[in-house]
User: Fold DNA mismatch repair protein MutT from Paenibacillus albidus.
Amino acid sequence: MAVRIDKVAWLYIAEGKLLGARSKGKALFYIPGGKREAGETDEQTLAREVEEELSVRLRPETISRFGVFEAEADGKAAGVKVVMSCYFADFEGELRPAAEIEEYLWLTYAERDRVSAVSQLIFDQLHELGLLL
Assistant:
């Protein structure tokens, strides 16, 4: 049976650039979010992870589903897949790296090679839709 890592991700685009985060000691950037805890909905996971990682509070009424993407998981054994449910949402507060996050960066489509395989699929779709420069 295939191993699947269930994740939820926050897509936040400003001026055609997508917010990305990089964990301490890692080279690749990823889309903010993470794994759900027992009993959490996608929206609860998203809000908790974003606040833990970037110190901002998502506005629940603005959360909207974008899609689900699946690819090989980076840094895991062959056959391990990551399944990422992606959502747009507005936020309150000032972005500040927290917890394991070393830095955040605004990424364009040209920087697609700086993100994980599943994030590259998301970049492709956002670019095709004209949302990502």
In short: Residues 16 and 132 are 5 Å apart (CA to CA). Strands lie at 4-11, 13-14, 17-23, 33-35, 57-58, 64-72, 81-88, 91-92, 101-107.
